[in-house]
Amino acid sequence: MLGNQSSATEFYLLGFPGSKELHHLLFATFFFFYSVTLMGNMVIILIVCADKRLQSPMYFFLGHLSALEILVTSVIVPVMLWGLLLPGMQTISLAACVTQLFLYLSLGTTEFALLGAMAVDRYVAVCNPLRYNVIMNSRTCIWVVIVSWVFGFLFQIWPVYATFQLTFCKSNVVNNFFCDRGQLLKLSCNNTLFIEFILFLMAVFVLFGSLIPTIISYTYIISTILKIPSASGRRKAFSTCASHFTCVVIGYGSCLFLYVKPKQTQAADYNRVVSLMVSVVTPFLNPFIFTLRNDKVIEALWDGMKRCCQLFNN
């Protein structure tokens, strides 16, 4: 669509292949996932703020993680849903494309930093329970969250800036349902090998920089749990970490396949499937992961529902 010497001022999102009927089915499916994601994560935020039993570092971090999940999926899914309703390709301006990619990457980086901090929090809770309230005090928790957010947004400024300094002269059709960086690099007529290598190193730094403390923390946690003499004690100790560990496996597994590869311009179908995991499936699953295996959260939910029923009855 572009001349050989021109650069894109807008892009066309190719979205999903298939018939109009398939698009309507995908719209209904993803709209359901998005609605449940919003409601589930908002409920978690509300009960963490309202219930005194959940006023601890673990649930403070969980509330921020839920907020991040809402924002990550809201950056991608509404645009995707709108594209499924439109005939043909969806137009997105250069400014909107830059904004979407920057927010998506920044929020994702913040989430990984927070997951690493949550792993350390679980380590302190299991391995140093007597000093837990001293080490993980409210001031420390607030600073951890602030640093995670600031780091996430500052870290992604250069990668997004460098991506859009390229000249997009091959085409302006992005073979995905959002402004996917790998597909954008495919459209450039510049030599992208150097920037792809730098982006690979930065992705390794973010993912493994937060994964290493997680692995170390869980190594000590498992070692400590195995030393607990009673089966009920081991089960209780493990239950405090099971939700976070499950979230880590799903989140890191998806993003390792998507970003930690030297060649960023991966096949479009591969990127589309893994992007769906990151932006739709993982935010959808997290509320269930953190509620179904957590007795305190379940109790808080039941009490909240009872209070709501009483208010309606009165």
UniProtKB/TrEMBL annotation:
GO cellular component entries: plasma membrane
Domain G-protein coupled receptors family 1 profile: 40-290
Gene name tied to this protein: LOC112651019
Origin superkingdom: Eukaryota
Membrane topology note: Multi-pass membrane protein
InterPro entries per the UniProt record, alphabetical: GPCR_Rhodpsn, GPCR_Rhodpsn_7TM, Olfact_rcpt, Olfact_rcpt_6C-like
Descriptive protein name: Olfactory receptor
Family annotation (Pfam families): 7tm_4 (PF13853)
Organism: Canis lupus dingo
Subcellular location: Cell membrane
Annotated keywords: Cell membrane, G-protein coupled receptor, Membrane, Olfaction, Receptor, Sensory transduction, Transducer, Transmembrane, Transmembrane helix
Family per similarity comment: Belongs to the G-protein coupled receptor 1 family.
GO molecular function, one term: olfactory receptor activity
PANTHER family for the chain: OLFACTORY RECEPTOR, OLFACTORY RECEPTOR 6C76
Function: Putative odorant or sperm cell receptor.
Transmembrane portions of the chain: 25-47, 59-81, 101-120, 141-161, 193-216, 237-260, 272-292
Primary location recorded for the protein, binned into one broad class: membrane
